[in-house]
Design a protein that fits this description.
Chains A, B, C, D: This is Aminotransferase class V-fold PLP-dependent enzyme. Chains A, B, C, D: One of its GO terms (biological process) is amino acid metabolic process. Chains A, B, C, D: Keywords: Aminotransferase, Pyridoxal phosphate, Transferase. The structure is a homotetramer. Chain A is an alpha/beta fold. The first copy, chain A, is built from 14 helices and 13 strands. A seven-stranded mixed sheet of chain A has the order 2-8-7-6-5-3-4, sandwiched between helices. A four-stranded antiparallel sheet of chain A has the order 9-10-13-12. A two-stranded parallel ribbon of chain A has the order 1-11. In chain A, helix 12 packs parallel to helix 14. The two termini of chain A are 26 Å apart. Chains in contact: A-B, A-C, A-D, B-C, B-D, C-D. Chains B and C meet through helix 10 of B and helix 10 of C.
Chain lengths: 350, 350, 350, 350
């Protein structure tokens, strides 16, 4: 069945599988100490314009968030996040499992507004009682956010300035980073992000890899003995080269950008198609996820033919749902989607 | 200096000290296995009308919250609390230290409204994605709340009904329980609370004891090997009889009630005095804490003569402050406070 | 370079890669809720003779140990392990990270002897002071052990009996389980293990898969909401079908057994070759890992030509090293190894 | 009944109670920010000859160990302790609860021998695989040990040298420190200890106080925001002055030394009495705890008349038991004990 359920419904880009099969019988040293990981790291450093960055590969997003955040925070600190942030809501308490609080601030379409961040920090430091509170020790943002929205360069610079002023690191969850970078509305490059963030990760799982995320510490600010910490938190892959090979391919000949651009293209066709047919969007997302409001009866009909995901209830008769394009989505799949929408519409009208 | 800074500025009621001095040279078995603890537990069971309750004594409020909440929650669960709850804001992340999330809901003057609780639970269980979220596993309320407000019997019954419906325990933080019970506005008895809550604690530190809180598990629902858990979390007092003797005295001849009533009496004189002098209250508290709005200049003058605590900024010219009465507050102290207020007023007018 | 450094130096069995490539473009639901995982589970249930077993796939061994052990223990309990156990020594404190103690007992060539286990448990329960101690709540064994040794059926039955008597689960770390089952000295079948253990895992990472371990709860004794616990501990793979497909292939047409048998065959050729050449073994291992004592000078010469791993220092002139065969080791590789040994010997003699 | 069951069976030295009662009605600022704590700290600094030491008061020993050890260790580190150490065995996993491993080494009568420590550290750092192991990040010793034994100055200097060489802190658990300092066999002063240890605590609970331990960081090496960490771990006492007043009295006019000396005197009379009567000692303890081997029948008779504690089984007919003297033990109590021993002996002979 045609599916837009998420951006991780398919395996990996063909080039990754090819390379993986080629290397399959070559003996490799364990735990990411192989040449392939080294090559991938070097390519990422170049792409980031950050020759001295420290890079680590991890298996998935929640694991990455837990290990990076626990690694950067001191014991008496928590991480500031938007109330809709993935670490706040959808990681089953993985941050709290490491002993740290997620300090939520109200988000604006998934983003932390600089003035909200500043207000939070000012209030904390002005409160004479803050020795009995969790210290804000880091800022977590996702880009694109869980709502598909993007920070503009000015916003990211402002957040970075505030973090620098309060001497706390800025961390970007880039699970869908490629789709953010290739959005037509983005005025941020990977180099900008590497310059403005203290640490961020480049998502592979949702952007062309079988699995894997590349963590970039941009200022030689890796927590000490990070490999041991990864091991302690159960995230060290024996065959680490499996992660290296995927990012090596993704960062060869701009493949990461190219497949992300393709996802944006199909997402825009999808969005255009919805708008032309009079659908309302929940949020105006410039990235690969599109949030559309459907009548419940129409939603039920559509569900029989196409995969998509429930997002939130709007009212008794309407529901917001998500259609996700990905690196693997084709233009003909979008045409098929729109054709089915038209058919349902005609049946209804007829 | 005359001080209303908190309800824990003084030591213990004289009768407690007397009894403690009498017992000082009697050898006692360790860790609360003594006859004095047993006596105190028996008296509390009677006062609660709960002959089978399991009772444990701990040293302080944050310790008690962390041990009880961690003890009652399963690993994948968090505790629901008002956003102003002590466990949410003022315990330095003690709950998260145990690996659990505090799931905040918007409070109403410090209270969780039954409909808000119901809405939260319904939303959680309706969300198809909740396997990736922290399960709501317990409800934490404070009574009186951090704002000095009280649940009425109907509200507590509604909360208890909802908890029963969802099969999660209701936990009451009774750091200032005596002041709640003796408030003129209270329609809840200790027996009601024991009947409606699954676990609660009777605060000693702020109500006549040197230190100590009595945890009451009302349905033989004590977590297994609770003593070992207390030890593991660093809360087991070698000379546990020190806690027993204090609660033994507090629950002899209704001393706990009597001294709480005295605090309510002086708190009301204070409140009356403020209102007669035209002061605005931040919250209309029927218990021992009074939250008054002062002009900043007046606040500065007052600060030189009397101890009280900063609560929150109202605007550039006004601040809300807290005056706490306690078991140790006398009527002459209140008269002295009001006299000083009048003097400052006269100076200003003059 | 010819390498016997570990059993995870190569990728996956060809059949796994083929199947993975075939499925690469098929959309799959996330987090292991796909048909391929279901198929794999069904095959494992059959192989275990345990139709009602609950099965979960995880990414690696340390992650699996941490999630299973934390999942089975109650907060006041620790896990008993041999002092040489992987969880005791080589997992960077992953168990302690979850808040639990590893209670070590002296191992015998990596194994826990039933009488040692019984002694430990008797001592604990006889100690009047045990409320201040960590309760033994589970037994962890590895099979094959870290020294390549095996439990015989009698030993496993005795351990299982003791665990049942004390009502604590028996957990087997089967990172190299296939090599244990196919050892000529093994009198244990997979069905025996499923019958005797409360939970165990079938290792994929070291036995033919790219990565992945299959956890088997044999008595419908899965900890509640285990998926949420996995998520909380950062172990939930978005594309869970990647694990399913690997175990589906491994448990089709006895592939898991067949490739394990192949590793045992080459390991025995290796062992035979060492013994014929007069080498001493550190331990007489009947599985895929061989522990050989080398003169240091010879070791240095060999290191230039062949990969193997340091095990432990014997004396100033000798070192024990490990040669690991795996599913991917060929007979010609073993012949090549023995040829090189002979060459080095001749040079030395010459 | 006459009891030698432990050194915490009685309350506090009279002078402490007197002072506490005097201060009972004086309002004090909360959480240890009072003048009395300040005075006590100043006196302890003087006694330690360590004018710049940072000092904190905590409630009990397990709490202190957990907070100090968690505070000093980095996340990837564990604490080295003797296998008989209190943190290893009798704190219900309180260290593991904070996420850290206790790395045990074989003790010699409760002590870590310098050569054993050096061997452990050398082995760890020589192991090429140590990235997968828990890093040794601190050394924990108890003085007197759990067996009543003492480090001599040379041993402590050697341990301190090794710690300095490996740049890890040396921590002394001084739950019974006074009895160590006043032992006739001690060649260590409090100043020596303050000079050689990075952090240690002076026990109050077992040495004259109702409860309380004074932690001394000797090199301005307090973990950052230590008050917040104490709060987070549930150890912050609201009426912190209760701890201050006790140590203020204990360190006035050498009271701490004086009462400790008295305990040593009675312990020695006890020991002498046992030896004169032909009893065997389990360990030759020069401090307040005496470990005596009794025939089981005699032990049962004695149990009816005197409190003492079970230590360990020797053989089917004999048991080692502990008699503890304390600051509160009188010479007449010892005479009474010896008289009862004689009576039991006579009955048996008769």
């Amino acid at each position: 069945m045609l599916s837009f359920e998420s951006d991780y419904i398919k395996g990996a880009h063909e080039k990754i599988l090819e390379r993986l099969c080629e290397m399959n019988q070559d003996p490799q040293p364990g735990y990411g100490s192989d040449a392939c990981c080294e090559r991938a790291k070097e390519k990422i450093r170049k792409a980031c314009g950050c020759p001295d960055a420290d890079i680590f590969f991890l298996t998935g997003g929640t694991q990455t968030n837990a290990i990076v955040i626990d690694g950067m925070l001191r014991p008496f600190e928590g991480v500031i996040a938007a109330d809709s942030g993935h670490v706040s809501v959808h990681e089953a308490g993985a941050i709290e499992f490491t002993g740290h609080k997620v300090l939520t601030v109200p988000g604006a379409d998934g983003k932390i507004q600089p003035k909200v961040l500043r207000g939070y920090l000012e209030n904390f430091w002005n409160d004479g009682n803050h020795d009995h509170m969790v210290f804000p020790g880091m800022v977590y943002i996702s880009h694109p956010t869980e709502y598909g929205t993007l920070y503009c360069r000015k916003e990211l610079e402002d957040l970075a300035d505030i973090c620098q002023e309060y001497q706390i690191p800025l961390y970007m969850d880039g699970a869908r980073l490629g789709y953010g970078l290739m959005s037509k509305e983005s005025d941020l490059t990977l180099q900008d992000i590497a310059r403005l963030c203290d640490v961020f990760y480049i998502g592979g799982t949702k952007v062309g890899a079988l699995f894997g995320e590349a963590v970039v510490f941009t200022r030689h600010n890796t927590p000490k003995h990070f490999i041991t910490r990864i091991k302690r938190q159960g995230g060290l892959l024996a065959k680490g080269w499996l992660l290296g090979v995927q990012f090596d391919v993704l960062f060869t000949d701009d493949l990461y950008y190219e497949i992300s651009r393709q996802a944006i293209r199909t997402a825009e066709q999808m969005k255009q198609g919805f708008l032309e047919r009079g659908y309302q969007l929940l949020i105006d997302s410039p990235t690969n996820q599109q949030f559309v409001i459907l009548e419940n009866t129409e939603m039920e009909r559509l569900k029989e033919k196409i995969g998509f995901s429930f997002w939130e209830k709007i009212d008794d008769a309407h529901t917001a749902v998500r259609f996700a394009a990905s690196w693997a989505t084709t233009e003909s799949e979008v045409r098929e989607l729109l054709k089915i929408l038209d058919e349902i519409h005609e049946e209804k009208e007829g």
